[in-house]
Design a protein that fits this description.
Largest sheet of chain A: 5 strands, mixed
CATH architecture of the largest domain in chain A: 2-Layer Sandwich
Strand order of the largest sheet of chain A: 5-4-3-6-7
Structural class of chain A: alpha/beta
Number of domains of chain A: 3
Number of strands of chain A: 12
Shape of chain A: elongated
Radius of gyration of chain A: 24 Å
Order of helices and strands of chain A: HHHEEEEEHEHEHEEEHHHHEHEH
CATH superfamily of the largest domain in chain A: ATPase, nucleotide binding domain
Oligomer: homodimer
Number of helices of chain A: 12
Helix content of chain A: 25-40%
CATH topology of the largest domain in chain A: Nucleotidyltransferase, domain 5
Chain lengths: 392, 392
């Protein structure tokens, strides 16, 4: 565990550590002498750095090779410790906890999920998270090299004026997690984190300006702007589900009327399908009807998709993203949803932008929030200067 | 003129220069000894820095005071050169050139404008800009300390794929300006620059997340996100005028239909007023009718304001700005416009955000684009690390 320092010397040292880790990542096992040649660091500095990396569990010194050497002691090889977790992501969703971890090579070591009752107390959710983390890497996950934990929660995060109820549903959450895992904790909204994950490892990997829309029991989203997670002036950003739609007059959970959520959430689409004479006791049945070519189901999705595309066009004109990612359970509807979305998007976006925006289905699924927590740590933790190139 | 260097040593040196300039700004005239005490720099380093600042014209060494001293040579006092321009902003608008300059204390030395025929060739526009710059500071503007020029142009800027016609209307513009002024040139869209200016010195001074909407012959805008000018993935951002509005079916100059611009530009509002039976040969007449309480004029502005507020609410839900600034000629309508805008904004924004957003009239007027060019230089030029605190 490294102290949470951010001075110039700590940053310089961290830069050296990153350099060494990077070389081991790129070249595989290296001797100290080879590391010295590649890094250009002095023998003393390198020795300090390697000692600390071994102590933290990030690097292991493997047994000397048996190859005969002319003289001197056998050469020790340094390698990255494959089971050393460098960052953990935890998504405290409404009805489930999701966890993921990456090692020092920024490879995902594993992910795990467990559903729970929405009323489960926070202490038990945290215990559940801890248990799930323990199952990662076949139970061999070492937390010695852990830099930070990125945590996703439901609801707005990041309003400096919002008082003690913020910045997470349980005011004690970061403190409790910090105590359990002995690492700094970064918290953000889990849908926004899913946006960051899609822009890091998912459908929009490498995208600098990404719009993520999640069509689930609620409709939300997130924005990545110039490569960074966008938060807005008071912690509200990406609330695409509460943009008013033409002809929308349904009362929304947010207190307003006519929000996109009232016509494009899973519940709203199911209700519209039933009003039109369709029979479905849940999303699975509706998806089945779509697959079977049920014209009522197709028309229902077309109407929802048109609203979605119109709202997306408005947001695109405002912020010009390069990629739009559609996620959430409703996105599983596929072309019957994506085609009307695309059509309305093209109809209402500025013609000059029409061919500049890609619409893609999300690829990370339920793990998005937890992976986004890791992406947050890798991008924003003051201790980690390296951007993850290909961690998945 | 400093070479356009950005290495660690150049940055360190620049940091020292900024420190010295800052001390002179704060304390007024200082001797070298006093500068040494306040800055903590070594005598040698300080001497180098001061010599360079005097050579660049940023600092002047004033005649030694006549006060009697006990021994040694008289004490020379160092002061900021009030007429040394550190950054120039030029706005090449459709029918006018606007220029502004700030000195090394980041105070606006002066602004100047001259209208011209929209067909004026670029060479002549540049000559006009040069002439206008020459009139600043009563013609005493010195360009020796000039760090960079920030230039606003009409149309999209910043699309890496757009080919040679970009990044400005005249592909040679930056090169021509660089040659004339012997300084680096930064170019951006002039409406976006006006947004940056309002967020720096205008209605939203100090705002980190600002939405600027300009209601003129076109309807455009700009976003400041987390303190930085937002550009979007392909150079299009803040195109609020091309967001579709309910009931909008007019053909827009962008090629789409139903854009906000078709109901909220100066021309569209005048046309709507005339269709409703009003008589006005121009905006001035319409503003006069509003002032006189003409109910047709009031209803016309109410309709436009409602569309504007609805679009603003959608954008606010997406990006959560802290301040909205309304500028452009139509903003001069005042309360008859602002009240319906505010009402529709409050009606359609998420209730949780209702009291978090401030709607304000722009304060910088026509100079906004040129001032924004300066703000761009002060924020983004690699040579200037200091953010302007109170330059106006």
């Amino acid at each position: 565990m490294h102290p949470h320092q951010d001075g110039p010397l700590a940053r310089l040292r961290r830069g050296h550590e990153d350099l060494v880790l990077d070389l081991l990542r790129k070249h595989g096992p290296l001797s100290r002498a080879e590391l010295g040649q590649h890094s250009g660091l002095s023998r003393t500095t390198l020795s300090d750095i390697v000692t600390e990396l071994i102590e933290s569990g990030a690097v292991v010194a493997t047994a000397p090779g048996t190859a005969p050497r002319r003289r001197g002691r056998p050469v020790e090889a340094l390698t990255l410790n494959p089971s050393a977790g460098q960052a953990i992501g935890i998504d405290f969703a409404r009805r489930a906890v999701h966890v993921s971890a990456v090692n020092v090579a920024h490879e995902v070591i594993g992910s795990a999920s467990e559903p729970h009752d929405p009323g489960l107390p926070w202490e038990e959710r945290i215990a559940l998270a801890e248990r799930l983390v323990g199952t990662l890497a076949d139970g061999a996950l070492r937390l010695d090299a852990l830099h930070a934990i990125g945590v996703g929660v439901v609801g707005p995060v990041g309003d400096p004026d919002a008082g003690p109820a913020q910045p997470c549903p349980s005011a004690d959450l970061p403190a409790l997690l910090r105590k359990r895992f002995e690492a700094p904790v970064l918290v953000d909204n889990n849908t926004r984190l899913a946006a960051l994950a899609e822009a890091t490892w998912g459908a929009a990997a490498g995208g600098q300006d990404v719009l993520y829309l999640r069509l689930s029991h609620g409709v939300g989203g997130g924005l990545v702007v110039s490569g960074a997670l966008h938060r807005g002036a008071y912690g509200l950003s990406g609330e695409f589900g509460h943009i008013a739609v033409e002809s929308g007059d349904g009362r929304c959970s947010c207190g307003a009327t006519g929000c996109l959520e009232t016509v494009a959430s899973v519940g709203a689409v199911l209700a519209a399908y039933r009003r039109a004479g369709g029979h479905a006791d849940g999303l699975a049945a509706l998806l089945g009807a779509l697959e079977a070519g049920d014209p009522v189901a197709l028309r229902t999705l077309e109407a929802a998709g048109t609203h979605i595309g119109t709202v997306l066009a408005a947001v695109c004109n405002a912020i010009g993203p390069g990629v739009i990612v559609l996620g959430g359970e409703l996105a599983a509807a596929g072309p019957p949803l994506f085609e009307p979305v695309e059509q309305a998007l093209r109809a209402h976006i500025m013609p000059i932008s029409r061919d500049r925006v890609d619409l893609r289905p999300a690829t990370l699924g339920e793990a998005g929030g937890a992976l986004g927590g890791i992406a947050l740590v890798l991008r924003e933790s003051p201790l980690l200067s390296h951007y993850p190139a290909r961690p998945g």
